[in-house]
Specification:
The radius of gyration is 57 Å and the shape is elongated. Strand 3 and strand 4 form a beta hairpin. The protein has a 6-stranded mixed sheet with strand order 3-4-2-1-5-6. Helix 2 (23-40) packs across helix 6 (164-173) and helix 3 runs parallel beside helix 4. The chain has helices at residues 7-13, 23-40, 82-92, 106-114, 122-130, 164-173, 176-188, 239-250, 261-265; strands at 3-6, 49-53, 64-66, 72-75, 100-102, 118-120. By secondary structure, the protein is of the alpha/beta class. It has 9 helices and 6 strands, in the order βααβββαβαβααααα.
Length: 266
Amino acid sequence: MRLLIDGYNLLHQSDLMGTGHGAAWLERARQRLIDTIAAYLEPQDLPQTTIVFDRHSGKQIDAHQVDSSGIQIFYAVDHPEADDLIEDLIAKSSHPKQLTVVSSDHRLQKAIDRRGGKSVDADIWYERLLAGQVTTGAKKTKQGRGNRQTKRGKSHKPDSPLTDEQLARWLDRFNADAIQDELSSLAEEPSPIPKPCPPALPQPKAKPAKKATKQKPQPKPPKKPAPPRSKKKQPAMKPDDLSKRKLQQENYNPFPEGYTDDLWDE
């Protein structure tokens, strides 16, 4: 034995409990847990796995059973509860350092720690199981891998067809009655008659767009040359002319001669 599981502790930490009440509902929940563990563990790990449940309150049941997958099942028939039986199994283990206890109960975690083994919380172990990360370290056998689900989410074909008991377990796990009722209700409901679609109106054909022609740039007219400006040079004045102009300016009288004669006569 390498893997010791606290059954109900793990069941309550998983998504396999479901809703209901009564002995039959609890039995189906236990079987869903066993089938899930068997589907995700390696074939060589199944005989090394032990699941312990509390005492069954209904019909008489054997204290020790072996599931069809090879998993060992114990019921605390001669013990007050499953924790007491798990502590006895830990104490009687011949190789406690190779033993891993799956439980969130601190009492069981301390019991396996005292003997040098390992303990894992139930919720953490369940997540690892679904991720394909759980192994007991047992050597692989030459037998086929069975219907174990791999990490990629694909399952291998079983070596032999399912028995009626196994088929009933899987149908119960996936709630086949509810699925069948849903399918029956869908079959009874008349399917709505689709309304005919109106015929599509013909659309006018679009005229093909004319290709845009590139216009050649027109040459610019040449600029007319501006007419040359005529520059007339003024003749330079001679020195004699300059002296005459100065004399004229000095002797210039704006009053003509005899302009004031009338004033003097008066």
